[in-house]
Amino acid sequence: MAKMWEGVTAAKTDAIADDFNSSIGFDCKMYKQDIQGSLAHAAMLAKCGILTISECEAITEGLGSILEDISSGKLAFDPTAEDIHMFVEAELTARIGDVGKKLHTARSRNDQVAVDLRLYLRDETETILGQLRELIGVLLDQAKAGKNIIMPGYTHLQRAQPITFAHHLLAYGMMFERDMGRLRDALKRMNVSPLGSCALAGTTYETDRLFTAKRLGFDGISENSIDGVSDRDYCVELLAAFSLIMTHLSRFSEEIILWSSWEFKFVELSDAYTTGSSIMPQKKNPDMAELVRGKTGRVFGDLMGTLTVLKGLPLAYNKDMQEDKESIFDAIETVAHCLAVFIPMVATMKPIPENMYRAAQKGFINATDLADYLVGKGRPFRSAYKTVGQLVARCIALGTVLDELPLEEYKAADELFDADLYPAISLETCVARRNSLGGCGPESFERQVRYLEERL
To answer: Is 253 a catalytic residue?
Structure first.
C-alpha cells in the first residue's frame, strides 16, 4: 500500500522497518470506532462548510459500506497498511475517488487515534462493568442461599472467629462493587473528545469540536490540544482498575483453590470448571481458578509496561505511544476472559456446610465470645482475656474444646461463670449476636445485601 505521508521523504522504508512500524495487526480492533469518528468528523466538516453536502454524503456512504464489509468478513485488513486509519482512508479513496482524500482535512492521525482509543475503551469498559454486575449478582445469590452456613473466619490463615459463608462472599461483593466505581470514575475522566486537536496545535480551519464531541457521546472536549493528543492517563487509570479487579479475582481464586482441596473441602467445584490429571485418576484440579490467579501477573505487567513507556516522553505525540494499545487491549481482554469463566464457576460452586461447621467447632474460635461473656458479668476485658487464654490451655491439655469443658473447670478459673455460658458460646449464638454495622449477624447481612442490590 502506498504511504499516505509521502512528501518530504520518498516514503520508501525498509521492509523490516515497515513491519516494525506497522500497527494494523492490533489496532484493526478499532475499525468500528475509527469509522465512527470519521463519520462524525465528516458531518462536522459539512456543517462548517469545509465539505459540500454531496461530498459528505459520498464519504458517509463509502464509510458505511466499508464498515459493513469488514463486519461481514467481505473485506479483509491489508497487512501492508501502516495502521487502521490509513487502511480505512485508502479503502475509502479507492471506492469514492479523490473526495475520500478530503476526509483528513482539519485532522491528524494523532487526534484520530486518540479518539478511536477512547471510544474503543469506553465500549469495552462497559462490557467489563456488565460482567462485574453479573458477578456481584451471583455472589448475592450464593450468599442468600448460604446465610445460615457457619464457617471459621481466618486471620493469618488461622481459625479466628465464627462467621457465615454468606459474610465471606459478601466481602468479595464489596470489593467488586468498588471496582465498578473505579471504572466509572475512569470513564468520566476519559469521556472527553480529543478530536480537532490535530497534530498538536489545533487547526486554522473554522471547525466545531463540540459538535463532534456531542455526536460521539462525549461529555466535552480536551481543553488543550497538546494534552488532547498526548494524554494517556485514562489508559493508566483503566489498567490500574483492571489490576485491582484481577487482584480481587486472584484472592478469591486462592481461597476457592484452598476450599476445594481435601485439607479444607469447604466447597465442591463443578466438573465443568475443573480438570483431571493425566496420571492420577483421583485428581480434580481447580485449573480455572489457578489460571485466573496466574493471569493476574500478566495484567500487572501491562500496567507497569504502560507506565514505563510514558514516564520519560516529552510532549506531544511520540511513536512510543503506539505501545499503549497492545498493553491495554491485552489487559481488557484478559479481564473479560477471566470474568467470563469465573462467573459461572462461582455460580455452580456448591458449599459443603457440614465440613465448614466441623472446622468452625475446632480451633477455639468462640474464645472471644467467652471473654465477652465475662465482660458482661463485670470483668475488665483484659482480665477476661487472660482467664480465657488459661482455659484454652486447659482444654488443650485435656483434649477437649470450650463448648465441652465441664462447668467446674470454668468455676475454678472464675466464680462468675455459670451454666448460661454454654448457649452464650455456641457457634450459632456467636454469629447471631454480631449485628454491629458490617458484622456477620443476620440483621447486618440483610443491610449488606440491600447495599449491594441498591448499587446494582
So the answer is: no
